[in-house]
Each structure stands twice: as C-alpha cells, then as structure tokens.
Amino acid sequence: MKSDLSGGIAVLDFGGQYAHLICRRVRALGVYSELVPHSTTAKELREMGVAGAILSGGPASVYAKGAPQPDPRIFDGRVPVLGICYGHQLLVRALGGQVGRSTRREYGRSMVKILEKGGLFEGIDRTSLSCWMSHTDSPRAVPAGLRVTAATENSPYAAVESSSGPLYGVQFHPEVSHTEEGQTVLSNFVLGVCGARRSWSMEGFRKRSVAELSKLDGRVLCAVSGGVDSSVTAALLNEAVGSKLKCVFIDTGLLRDGEAAYVMKFLARDLGVDVELVDASAAFLRALRGVADPEQKRKVVGKAFADAFERFASQRGPFRYLAQGTLYPDVIESGRSSAPASVIKTHHNVGGLPPGLSMKVVEPLRELYKDEVRELGAILGLPKKVLARHPFPGPGLAVRVIGEVTEEKLRIARESSRVVEEVLEEEGLYDRVWQAFAYVGDDEVTGVLGDERRLGRQVTVKVVESVDAMTADWSRLQPEVLERVSTRLTNEVEGVVAVAYLVSSKPPATIEPQ
Ligand code: XMP
User: Fold this and answer.
1) What is the mean pLDDT of residues 460-482?
2) Which of 185, 391, 402, 440 is the most buried (most CB within 10 A)?
3) Is 67 near ligand 1, meaning CB less than 6 Å away?
4) Structurally, what CATH architecture does the domain formed by 9-193 represent?
5) What does the alpha-carbon distance between residue 56 and residue 11 come to, in Å, rounded to a whole number?
6) What atom in ligand 1 is closest to the CA of residue 466?
7) How far is 468 from 450, CA to CA, in rounded Å?
8) Shortest CA distance to 94 belongs to which of 136, 63, 58, 64?
9) Mean pLDDT within 359-383
C-alpha cells in the first residue's frame, strides 16, 4: 500500500538485509517510512516532501563497477541524509573522502567509542556503545568538512557529521536490536535533525487497509492457520469485506498438538468468522514421502497447500482473491523485495504458489513486522492468548523434522514441542521468549531403560529470544528449567532417550532448524 511520504522518511534501498528494518524502526517512532528505489533523485525526494532520507546498507563495494549509486545531488544538504554502512561509505565518498577494504572485517558486535556528544548521540550519557557491524569496506580518509563523531578499533571513522549541512553517516547498524541505543541514534536523526511528522499509527494503518481492502470486488478466500498472522489477516478482512470472506483451515498433519480443534473454536467463536476445516493430512504426508531436502520439503508443502486451496476454491467458489498473512521478513528473506537481498529460505507462503493460480493473492500485512501485527491484532480485538502465541512456520513440523518426514518423527516433534511450551508456561517464561520448541532427526542414541540398553531418539530443544526474527539469540534458561524439560521429555515422550539444548544465535543459525 503506497502512502504519503510527506513529512516522513524515505529509505533508499541499496539491497541490505536490514533495509526494511530501518523503515520499521522509524515507524516505531510514529513517523511514516517507506523503502524507495536507490535511484530516487534529490528532486523526487523534495517533491515527495520527505523530512529526511536514510541510505541503507548493501552488499556491494562503493568503488566496484556497477555498484548502486545515488543521485549525487542528494548530498547538497537540502534534504537531511543519514547513511548507514554502505550508505555511510557512499556519503563519505561523495563528499570527497576515501573508502577501501578494512584492515579487519567487522561482523557482529563492536565497541563504538563516542568522540563527540550531541548530534546523533544526543542524550546518550555513555562514552561507548556495543554496536552491530557487518562490513568489509569502510572509510579510510574523510574530507575536512566532515567531523568524526565515533570510532571503533578497526573503523576510525565509524560515525561522521557534516559541518555545513544535515548530513550524517554511521558504519554500524542502529536499526538492529543488538545495537545499544540504536533507536536513540535513529530518533536523534528522524525527530531531532529532520523534525519529521509523527503521523504514523497502527490505527491509521487499520483505517487505510480497511478502506483499500473494501474495494476488493469479489469473494475472498483466506487460509487460516490459527497463528497470529493469518488470524489478524482474517480479522482485518472480516472488517473490510464481511460476508464476502470465507476462511479455510487446512489440517496438514504438520501442526502443533491440538491445533485444529483450538483454531476452529476460537475463529468461529471469538472472531465470528465463517471458517471450514479441511483434513488434508493424508495428502501432505503422501507428498512428503521420501523427501529429505529442506528446500524441497518447503516446495512440496507449498504445492500441497496450493492444491488443497484450489480444490476447496473450486468446490466452494468462485473466489476471486486468496488472502495470506505474509509479513515483511517473509518477503525480504524470500528475496522478493524491490532490491532483493539474497534468498535465505523459500518460505512456503511466498515461494511455492504455482504461477497458474486462479486467484489473485492479497497480502494486507506484507508491510508489517511481527510486533506490529500483534499491535494491529490487539486493536482489532483478538484474544490475548492468540496474539501471544509463538510464531509457527508455514511448513510446520516438516521443517522441525530433519530428514524424511515420518509419522514417528512427527509425533516426537509434536509431543516434545508441547512439553517444552508447557514447561515455559509453568515457569512464566513463555511470553518472554520468541519461540520454544523441540525438533528431531534420525540420530539414534543408546539409552538405558531399567536394566535394558535401548536405542532411542535424541531431540534438540530450541528456545530463542528475538525482536523481529531477523536476528535471534538463544535463551539463557536456568539449569533447573532445562532439567525439567529434559526429564519430562524422556519420561513422557515415547522413544526419546536424550535431550540436547541448542546454543547458536541467528546468524549464523536460523531459528527453524531447516
Ligand atoms: P528462520 O528459520 O528463517 O525463521 O530464522 C524466521 C521466522 O520465520 C518463521 N519461519 C517461517 N514462517 N513459513 C513461515 O510462514 C516458513 O517457511 C518459515 N520458516 C521460518 C520462523 O518460525 C521464525 O519465526
């Protein structure tokens, strides 16, 4: 949905993984922000009436042939500019500095020393901050007109500010949740330097979406999974198109324990939605037989979904539209954004739909991050229990079973995940973590049951903390909690003799094991 950027912040997209995240953070400040092509000119920005522009990071080297370059007039000082990472290097270079390979690449956390207070660092008392870095190049020399306001051990020009106009650059990523005071840095630019208009709110988004969706001129089929995203999608569409909406809940056989019954009850009762249950589990399991490759599994599940939808649509149709709860991270991680970052995983709901699909896809949440969707769900009146549910991947337990999907491994993954969730709920930790589950592969380990040695499965427990799923860290659970999880798993889940706890962050690991 295009919105008026007047008084807002345009983010010029140079292809960085975190480009969308910058918009999200700016919106969290109540200021509308959108990603625009990196080729947007200074004149176009002024015509849009933006309060400021942020140049995103990107994978290229500024001096490489064919590297994306902005309109040089962007740096004339008429529109305030903040360059981040690659954007920082572009700014330094455009103003007469030099950029080159860093002596050491910086990936992950770096200590940034603040050399000059005020400006981007206004209101920050500390003299150094732990910041997220991800770069190979960095400025090697800066021109006289740029003041250096922060440095790291390997980046002597980690933050700069122009003495003659509102031009700023930072080598680190203030938009990433692991950067300390990152939101303060962004706020200092957006509200302090740019004086941007605070007109963005979730209520505004709801009104605009409902107005836009109510123009849909035909019946809408919405696939619901019981998760936050599809429930909010259904609620929004219910408000916008009412009786033109029909929801279908497909039981894939890859769902969480008790999910089908729970979803049908809350959707029909709490949301008053017209929803029908289709048990397609046999077809999904058949299609997955013999498939071990993770990407292939996603494609198989996506295809089985599409087939089930189409069958339902032809029986209950005609439907003109198919609504999906696709979010920003799904879009960007599937390489579908305007300047695609490289594909990380093909998420079923954006990767697997056949080109000949006879319905038009509607994705009302594709601009939003998870926490924004929860906020929207709350103002739409969804029950707290639904909004607080952990995310669950579209391909379900198929990606929490390593190797071929079998009934036995599915049962172990399903029951084990329920146990992990139950323990966290009992410990009051469920709402504090992003996701908690267990997965299983083909590893068989020797166990001792009574006096008998017996081969059994090893399950791996994952509990992660995250703000937006773009990055995540493993949860430092107390040993006593881990012990309870482990004991319950081996006692209660048939076939499990050993339990491991995964201690990798994202990156390099992803949240789902596959
Ligand atoms: P990863 O594993 O990529 O996951 O770190 C990030 C977030 O997305 C969820 N996820 C998916 N959601 N379809 C979805 O709708 C998928 O194929 C899929 N794969 C991962 C995951 O649970 C996490 O919250």
Assistant:
1) 94
2) 185
3) no
4) 3-Layer(aba) Sandwich (3.40)
5) 7
6) 24
7) 45
8) 63
9) 90
- How far apart CA 98 and CA 504 sit, in angstroms, is 37
Give the lowest-confidence range in 229-238, 346-355, 451-460: 346-355
Close Cβ partners of 314 (under 8 Å, ≥ 6 residues apart): none
Supply the angle between the helices 479-492 and 407-426 in degrees, to the nearest 10.
140
Instruction: Indicate the domain borders of the chain.
Output: 9-193, 202-387, 400-501
Q: Is the CB of 294 under 6 A from ligand 1?
A: no
Going by alpha carbons, the residue nearest to atom 10 of ligand 1 is 393
Rounded distance from Cα 393 to ligand 1 centre (Å): 5
Say yes or no: CB of residue 391 within 6 Å of ligand 1.
Answer: yes
pLDDT confidence bin for 355, thresholds 50/70/90:
low
Measure the CA–CA gap between 58 and 70, rounded to whole angstroms: 12
The number of residues making up the chain comes to 514
Q: What single letter denotes the amino acid at residue 209? A: S
Q: State in Å: Cα 243 to ligand 1 middle.
A: 31
**ω into residue 364 within 30 of 0, thus cis?**
no
Catalytic residues: 85, 173, 175
Rg over alpha carbons for the chain, rounded to the nearest Å, is: 25
Dihedrals phi, psi of 358, to nearest 5 degrees: -85, 5
Q: What is the pTM of this model?
A: 0.71
Residue 166 tokens read as 């509102």
Instruction: Give the pairing type, strands 98-114 and 128-141.
Output: antiparallel
The reply to whether domains 9-193 and 202-387 share a CATH topology is yes
DSSP conformation letters of 297-324: HHHHHHHHHHHHHHHHHHHH---SEEE-
Residue whose Cα lies nearest atom 15 of ligand 1: it is 394
Please state, in angstroms and rounded to a whole number, the distance separating the CA atoms of residues 405 and 292: 7
Q: How far is the centre of ligand 1, averaged over its atoms, from the C-alpha of 281 (Å)?
A: 21
Q: What is the spatial distance between Cα 396 and Cα 28, in angstroms, rounded to a whole number?
A: 30
Q: How far apart are CA 167 and CA 364, in angstroms?
A: 35
In the block, tokens 């999200």 appear at: 24
Return the ∠ at Cα 158 (arms to 155 and 159), rounded to 5°: 160
Residue range 202-387, CATH number: 3.40.50.620
Question: Where are any strands of DSSP class E within 97-219?
Answer: 98-114, 128-141, 146-151, 159-162, 167-170
Asked if residue 219 has its Cβ within 6 Å of ligand 1, the reply is: no
Of all protein residues, the one whose alpha carbon is nearest to atom 18 of ligand 1 is 393
Token pair for 136: 């190979």
What is the three-class DSSP state of 76? Answer: helix
Q: For ligand 1, is residue 510 a contact (CB within 6 Å)? A: yes
pLDDT tens digit sequence for 303-351 = 998 899 888 988 998 889 989 898 876 766 655 444 333 344 444 444 4
Token pair for 87: 């954007």
400-501: CATH architecture: 2-Layer Sandwich (3.30)
Q: Whose CA is closest to atom 24 on ligand 1?
A: 391
Q: Measured from the CA of 346, which atom of ligand 1 is nearest?
A: 17
Three-state SS at 132: strand
